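Thread: "does anyone have the structure for this chain?"

Original post by V.I.:
We have the sequence but no experimental structure in hand. Need at least a predicted one for the grant figures.
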Amino acid sequence: MPALDPVVYFFLLGLLAGFAKADLRLPPSIYEFVSTVLLLAIGLKGGVELARHATLELAAQVPIVIGMGVVLALLAFAVLRYLGRFDLPDAASIAAHYGSVSVGTFAVGVAFLASANIPYEPQLSLFLVLLEVPAILVGIVLARGAHAGIGWGRVLHEAFLGRSVLLLLGGLVIGWAAGEQGVAGISPLFIGLFKGILALFLLEMGLIATQHIGGLRKHGVFLAAFAIVTPVVFGTIGAFTGSMLGLSVGGTTLLATLAGSASYIAAPAAMRTAVPQADPGLSLAAALALTFPFNILIGIPLYQRIAQWIVT
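Reply from O.Q.:
Generated one for you, tokens below.
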């Protein structure tokens, strides 16, 4: 795009307001509403498209996508543990965040493609849901040496029935079951207002991101470099995976966006339960203060160019 999408300017406004310590925070109830609508909208949209275009090809794609999430978490752990010399719990926790995905980043990627009139495959919304969980489980397994006796029931509950995963999966199933005609009655809220809801969400994310900048200053250059370099490397891996799966330029762009993103909703909740020794400030500082802004401003257009180069 020749200029930034308007929703990105809302994120920049949030950043500026946060650095200026201005009072722009959304009331908690409004933020909960905005994030709920956003998650359901992504799920519904993907479910409707899946009902229209579901193919047997999807069954072959799903294991590869899940495998990609596992590999990304292992790669992040190896870099953090052996190059960054992070403690085992912190390396495992940060790796889980970077192997998992960001719903907000995906939503901006969808808006980016819509603004550029680039279509994408419907199963990308399903891939979003699938990629939330495997890396979290990998991170927990990697950290077991630091924390024996993990309450797996509680952890699995957080991973599979956490708010973000449940809303995404619920929306996906509802959209698939109801189909386009069934969803038409609620589409003005979930589809028509999608970009407006996303703009409010990004305004709040800009404010929240500034709160974690201190963690980056505290923990040095390596973590900051990791938070910028990793999305590009992982996004490129995602783009090649998308090409291997036969996805279009749009689908490959979104899979690269997912691979290059880092979770700041599902992963923090699960890792706090499973690996209490890990410092959550490290993960959130990297994922939310640097990786998220990088992807919003630079990463997504970069992934689209990489996808175009690989696919065409």
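V.I.: this helps a lot. The CA atoms of residues 209 and 289 lie 5 Å apart.
O.Q.: and The domain at 6-21+30-311 is CATH 1.20.1530.20 (Na+/H+ antiporter like fold).
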